[in-house]
Design goal:
Residues 4-222 form the ABC transporter domain. The protein is of the alpha/beta class and 222 residues long. It has one domain (32-59, 73-221): 3-Layer(aba) Sandwich (Rossmann fold), CATH 3.40.50. It contains six helices and ten strands. The protein has helices at residues 46-53, 76-85, 102-112, 119-129, 144-157, 174-191; strands at 4-13, 20-30, 35-39, 61-66, 69-70, 87-90, 162-166, 194-199, 210-215, 218-221. Strands 6-7-8-3-9-10 form a six-stranded mixed β-sheet, sandwiched between helices. It has a four-stranded antiparallel β-sheet with strand order 2-1-4-5, covered by helices on one side. The longest helix has 18 residues, at 174-191. It binds adenosine-5'-triphosphate (ATP).
Length: 222
């Protein structure tokens, strides 16, 4: 069974007077080869949702199924393996290693994981994202938009089945935004990737196969 599913997922941060319900009984489903968008304003719970969907955080209650397997029941070791082989994240902080060049960020991945994109496929990704000429630069020599595109390329390089992206176009101009969204759409439809993009940008809705709206931690399908 393929696809990613959240069933009645809630997430509560803090206790007592600082108790905050970030996700409330969220039900969500994405099937293989789909690009799904989760749209919501700042603070609505998008990052919380995405990190729980990919196993970076555990929910307070509810189930998260990836390919039919409830990932909340996996051991730490199994979760780490699943994240490395099955799920690729593009996070808002980009998470680039500061003392490695762009090329070395990819070399590092190659050391810890096999079955990455072929050189030809990867070259094509670098060309589409327009970052080929940045390979020997360090992260602090890059603009926000360039870092964002490197972070996207790094997630794609590992060739994961699922790509979970947090505001992947936030630092990009309209032209680049459309290029990135078209690339993600093509990966879903032609390479059978399953992609979740969370964003506050309503302009991206037309690119998606399915759209969910999240408001104050409550999710509904549009
Ligand atoms: N670790 C935490 N402890 C306490 N509250 C938190 C924590 N992480 C997030 N929150 C709160 O949960 C709510 C949802 O946060 P989240 O980051 O998921 O929203 P978001 O929609 O991604 O926001 P943004 O678009 O601004 O990144 C916010 O009110 C936030 O302050």
């Amino acid at each position: 069974m393929t696809g990613l599913k959240l069933i009645d997922v809630s997430k509560v941060y803090g206790t007592g007077s600082s108790r905050f319900v970030a996700l409330s009984q969220v039900n969500f489903e994405v099937e293989e080869s789909q690009l799904v968008l989760v749209v919501g304003p700042s603070g609505s719970g998008k990052t919380t949702f995405l990190t729980i969907a990919g196993g970076l955080q555990t929910p307070s209650s509810g189930d998260v199924l990836i390919n039919g397997q409830d990932i909340t029941l996996l051991s730490q070791k199994e979760q780490t393996k699943m994240r490395l082989t099955t799920v690729g994240f593009v996070l808002q902080a980009y998470n680039l290693v500061p003392y490695l060049t762009v090329k070395e960020q990819f070399d590092l991945l190659e050391k810890v994981k096999t079955n990455n994109l072929s050189e030809k496929q990867f070259n094509s990704v670098l060309n589409i994202l327009g970052i080929k000429e940045l390979l020997f630069k360090y992260p602090d020599e890059l603009s926000g938009g360039q870092k964002q595109r490197v972070a996207i390329a790094r997630a794609l390089f590992a060739d994961p089945e699922y790509i979970l992206a947090d505001e992947p176009t936030a630092s990009l101009d309209t032209g680049r935004t459309m290029q990135v969204m078209n690339l993600l759409k093509r990966l879903a439809h032609e390479n059978q990737k399953t992609i979740i993009v969370v964003t506050h940008d309503l302009r991206l809705e037309k690119m998606a196969d399915k759209v969910y709206q999240i408001t104050d931690g409550k999710m509904k399908k549009v």
